[in-house]
Amino acid sequence: MIERTVAPQLWEAFSRYPVVGVVGPRQSGKSTLARAVFPGLPLINLEGLDEREYALRDPKGFLARFPNGVVLDEIQRTPDLPSYIQVLVDERRRPGQFVLTGSQNFVLMERVSQSLAGRIALFRLLPFSVAELAGAGSTGAPLFEVLFHGFYPRIHDRQLAPTQWLESYLETYIQRDVRTLRNIGDLSSFTRFLRLCAGRAANLLNLSSLAGDCGTSVGTAKAWLSVLEASFIIFLLPPHFESFNKRLIKAPKLHFVDVGLLAFLLGIRSPAELEIHARRGDLFENFVAAELLKAKYHTAVSGDLYFWRDKSGHEIDLLMEAGPRRIPIEVKSGQTVQPEFFRNLDYWRRISGAVERGHLVYAGNDRQERSEHTVHPWTELAAPAQLLA
Fold first, then answer.
1. How far is CA 72 from each of CA 34, 66, 330, rounded to the nearest angstrom?
2. Do both 92 and 187 map to the same domain?
3. By C-alpha distance, which of 222, 265, 244 is closest to 349?
4. Residue 164 lies in a domain
5. Which domain holds residue 248?
6. pLDDT tens, 323-381?
7. Separation in Å, CA 10 to CA 6, 38, 49, 357, 376
8. Beta strands of 25-169 (E only): which ranges?
9. Angle 218-230/187-198 helices, nearest 10 degrees?
10. Total structural domains within the chain
11. In sequence order, what are the beta bridge partners of 31?
12. 316 lies in the same domain as 215
């Protein structure tokens, strides 16, 4: 098993809070992680019909079976259970009672905010990171092979062909999670919408254009985006708010949580095809953004992630805000560093008056220290804290 970097934080939180929650996409390794971190607790999968019916029909009797703690997998399948858990943890008044996992972010968060606020430490588990694969000695593959395979654990644990597995994953996701989160009658339209989102990855979100291309209303497109966010298929990167007397873009950027799934949705069927694909730059930028998001959720790397762009088209691909620090990061898919790669970094540092060095992440293999910027090879994403030091 590949060790997850969030594991020590889970164990620490379990010693302090009565409830620990882990949310993330299906097949991100939540159940495997729970078994590894809490081997002494029984694990009940609420996808199972018998256990789910018991929990729905008699929640008090169901929970009474576990006086010494339990892992409840896919808790969103029993949406009223957190309210009964609240009563129990308030009565027992001790840490380390329940571990809850869920695949639907908004559903679980809504229930948590209503009933378990102040009683739960909540974590997000995304697919493997470059850092986790490096720690297990599973790196060393060329960049475009890494991007093509993506980071869902089962592909790596079982050495599966990504195209076949992702096709099955996508079909299961649409038939199962989409119907659970929202009553979508025309699943073929939703599938087309998902592919249109892939065509806009690493770009500004234009809801009107997206809805028009899909042949649906803006309201429906917005609702479908919420479904994709809730199930951890996409994330929206917000624009940074500081204008420096410049008019700013206010729309978020659309990114996919897993770059392998993004490549699959774009119709890419081999690493060689990805390397010469017209969207290679967007795929690489999406990859870097997702890795920094994983660093935020899985490790002690703190800070909020944004992008910055003004109406003139000057853009910083990623801007990490950590306390008073604002760390600008430019992303380029070329393997040779060119002078124009630093143009936006120079512009942003000049108008912001920043003393922070600029950071360039590129598809090459050499680290370079320039007078005002640091050039990072993509492999340094295996140590994101060092990358942003």
1. 10, 11, 41
2. no
3. 244
4. yes
5. 130-387
6. 888 999 999 999 999 999 999 999 999 988 877 899 999 999 999 999 999 999 999 99
7. 6, 9, 28, 34, 31
8. 43-45, 70-73, 98-102, 120-124
9. 80
10. 2
11. none
12. yes
